[in-house]
Design goal:
Order of helices and strands: HHHHHEEEEHEEEHH
Radius of gyration: 28 Å
Helix content: 40-55%
CATH architecture of the largest domain: Distorted Sandwich
CATH topology of the largest domain: Calcium-transporting ATPase, cytoplasmic transduction domain A
Structural class: alpha+beta
Distance between the termini: 79 Å
Shape: elongated
Largest sheet: 7 strands, antiparallel
Number of helices: 8
Number of domains: 2
Strand content: 15-25%
């Protein structure tokens, strides 16, 4: 069975937690085991390096060569229109490079936007005492208190709920707030369970007490962030058309350039 199908007491027992919260020693142990509760950024190449690479990949180099041959042909026979062809090729290189780089930049900014959906602090019960903690220090088994206006810091299973409604649009795409309670759920999918609160969503009304069962990149929110960074970039219709036009121009320029070179 999954945690949302358990009763509140069974959910606590499965996480080896209790209503009074975890001990500080157990928190430290779990923090070292599960890591910080935050969206991890997959480090790649710097923006400057990625920008440069858009203009020096194999296909771009062929276009640079084609542009050079077009200008060379123009120098051998001025007024033949080859300079215009050379400038057209340079335009294709610049447009294609900027468009590809912009797509990568937008994906990177999407991660920054996702990170802003998580709160910085949350009310946590540990060793029977209520305190405000950094969200990054949350671990599975922590007991959190949430109320209207709070953003959910991790994936949680409700232990108590009082007229609680949440906005799940950021994770599930549901446009209307959803009611939540602490009763066991028969749903198979975690996202549709009435007793779970997902990281990155927000409490619209009411209040509740819940136990954290997933943090960081193990949350549904973290999985979305991971996919955002690792999904293979698709080729747009505009890029396909630019590539087709570039091949035609490159072949034409190379042919004309070679002809002029041997004349």
């Amino acid at each position: 069975m999954k945690i949302h199908q358990f009763s509140a007491e069974e959910a606590l027992a499965s996480l080896k937690s209790r209503h009074e919260g975890l001990s500080l020693a157990e928190v430290q142990h779990r923090l070292s085991e599960y890591g910080a509760n935050q969206v991890e950024v997959i480090r790649g190449e710097s923006l400057i390096l990625r920008f440069i690479k858009e203009f020096i990949h194999f296909f771009a180099l062929i276009l640079w060569l084609a542009a050079g041959l077009a200008f060379f042909a123009e120098s051998r026979q001025p007024g033949g229109g080859m300079a215009m062809l050379g400038y057209a090729i340079l335009g294709v290189i610049v447009i294609n490079g900027l468009f590809s780089f912009w797509q990568q930049y937008r994906a990177e900014r999407a991660i920054s936007a996702l990170q802003k959906l998580l709160p910085h602090y949350v009310k946590v019960i540990r060793d029977g005492e209520l305190g405000q903690m950094l969200v990054a220090n949350l671990v599975p088994g922590d007991i959190v208190l949430l109320q209207e206006g709070d953003n959910v810091p991790a994936d949680c299973r409700l232990l108590e709920a009082f007229s609680l409604r949440v906005n799940n649009a950021t994770v599930t795409g549901e446009s209307l707030p959803q009611m939540r309670d602490a009763q066991p759920s028969s749903e198979e999918n975690l996202e549709r369970s009435r007793n779970t609160l997902l990281a990155g969503t927000s409490v619209v009304s009411g209040e509740g007490r819940a136990v954290v069962f997933a943090t960081g990149m193990h949350t549904e929110f973290g999985k979305i962030a991971h996919l955002t960074q690792t999904t293979v970039k698709s080729v747009s219709p505009l890029q396909l058309e630019i590539a087709r036009l570039s091949r035609i121009i490159a072949v034409l320029s190379l042919t004309v350039g070679v002809v002029f070179f041997f004349i």
